[in-house]
Structure to design on (334 residues):
């Protein structure tokens, strides 16, 4: 029953583990999502039922996995973790579903990347807590119905628009996660600095928070880089000067844009005269996967007011031209 092996683990996630908030009270920011979730979970507990299936939608690093774990722990339930890309064959999903115990939370990260046959199996499981397993091939093939214990599916996606209608409709509640405000990221940083034992001044924390792309995972990552700098070049204490110098070394600009963000903006402005241009063309220009540009870079560039989405493609705003030190053409949108 070790489903953790199927989970997506990258370096950052390992590092994140110790910094994850463990209860809703511990979870900073996202006041709307927290209130909505509190109601869903409270009502389910009062009824003695498993909560409705929950979809968490938003860019990477905003706390979707953390929330899934919190949902399980608030319900006193176990969590099984997998991801859309890991569920290539319906059989993988059937094995997972048939091992669930009543009340379990099944977390499927990147659920928009689930393969079609597994997705279709999921419909039935979500709705009727049952799956049909097809055994054999050709005319002799039979379908064996299997019961699934009542469970709560928590899906996470960076692209809720890529979910098929029938899948989206089977979630009782969708939480839209927003980028964090600077003051919320300051609290994330202070909490993490406390856990990691990093002495950091308030103005240094504000500086790092303001350059974290509205994203707790990035805030925590920059905190570690700033700590490295303060330990190697200073006495380990993170003050404003150390924070600024470290962020410069790591190529994080004053808006928090990283190399790829700037490459995308640069391609849009210099390569395509500010657009409009399609996202896949932009991705080719910077040598990245379209999904990365669309799901990782673009949401923040839009929120930062650098890029506008139009029906004909992406357009650079006047702010983008200025940010790159260029004069926007007449008619550039604000
Ligand atoms: P996602 O699944 O959306 O990519 P994660 O849940 O893995 O994001 O969050 C990444 C890391 O950011 C977590 O390990 C945690 O350290 C931190 N984090 C995310 N959201 C919060 C929050 N609201 N409060 C405190 N830390 C957070």
């Amino acid at each position: 029953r070790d489903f953790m092996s199927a989970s997506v683990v990258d370096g950052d996630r390992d590092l994140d583990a110790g910094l994850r908030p463990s209860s809703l009270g511990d979870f900073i920011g996202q006041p709307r999502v927290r209130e909505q979730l509190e109601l869903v979970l409270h009502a389910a507990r009062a009824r003695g039922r498993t909560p409705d299936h929950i979809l968490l939608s938003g860019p990477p690093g905003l706390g979707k996995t953390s929330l899934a774990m919190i949902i399980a722990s608030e319900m006193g339930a176990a969590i099984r973790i997998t991801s859309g890309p890991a569920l290539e064959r319906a059989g993988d999903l059937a094995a997972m579903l048939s091992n669930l115990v009543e009340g379990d939370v099944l977390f499927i990260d990147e659920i928009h990347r689930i393969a079609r046959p597994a997705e279709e199996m999921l419909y039935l499981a979500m709705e009727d807590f049952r799956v049909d397993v097809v055994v054999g091939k050709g005319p002799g093939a039979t379908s064996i119905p299997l019961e699934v214990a009542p469970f709560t599916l928590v899906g996470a996606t960076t692209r809720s628009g890529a979910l098929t209608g029938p899948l989206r409709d089977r979630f009782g509640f969708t939480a839209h996660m927003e980028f964090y405000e600077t003051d919320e990221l300051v609290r994330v940083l202070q909490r993490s600095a406390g856990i990691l034992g990093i002495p950091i001044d308030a103005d240094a924390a504000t500086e790092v928070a303001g350059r974290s792309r509205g994203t707790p995972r990035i805030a925590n990552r920059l905190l570690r880089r700033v700590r490295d700098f303060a330990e190697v070049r200073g006495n380990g204490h993170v003050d404003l000067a150390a924070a600024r110098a470290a962020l410069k070394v790591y190529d994080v600009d004053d808006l928090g844009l990283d190399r790829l963000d700037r490459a995308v903006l640069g391609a849009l402005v210099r390569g395509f005269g500010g657009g409009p241009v399609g996202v896949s063309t932009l991705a080719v220009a910077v040598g990245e996967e379209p999904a990365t540009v669309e799901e990782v870079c673009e949401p923040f560039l839009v929120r930062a007011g650098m890029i506008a989405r139009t029906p004909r493609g992406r357009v650079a705003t006047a702010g983008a031209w200025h940010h790159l030190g260029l004069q926007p053409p007449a008619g550039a949108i604000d």
Confidence is low (pLDDT under 50) at residues 1-11. The longest helix spans residues 216-233. The chain is about 45% helix and 15% strand.
